[in-house]
Design goal:
Elements lengths: L8 H10 L6 H23 L23
């Protein structure tokens, strides 16, 4: 299988279609350019070993950033 940064425009258009995006040829070229710019950082993020800890984001609506925790 080819590396993700080696996608042909045809394969890139297939990925777009799977995501529900049907760009014009110009839009597809622009999107693929953006893809190529962010892919190294995305690859690095996916390579980080976070161990076995569960990660979660929580929202506390009563939290006040100006108050001190007791």
């Amino acid at each position: 299988m080819a590396e993700l940064n080696e996608l042909s425009m045809e394969d890139f258009n297939v990925l777009c279609a799977r995501a529900g995006i049907v760009p014009t040829d110009e839009e597809a070229r622009d999107l693929k350019g953006m893809w190529n710019r962010v892919l190294p950082d995305l690859t690095a993020l996916h390579a980080i070993d976070l161990g076995e800890a569960d990660l979660a984001i929580s929202f506390e609506p009563g939290w006040d950033s100006g108050s001190e925790a007791s």
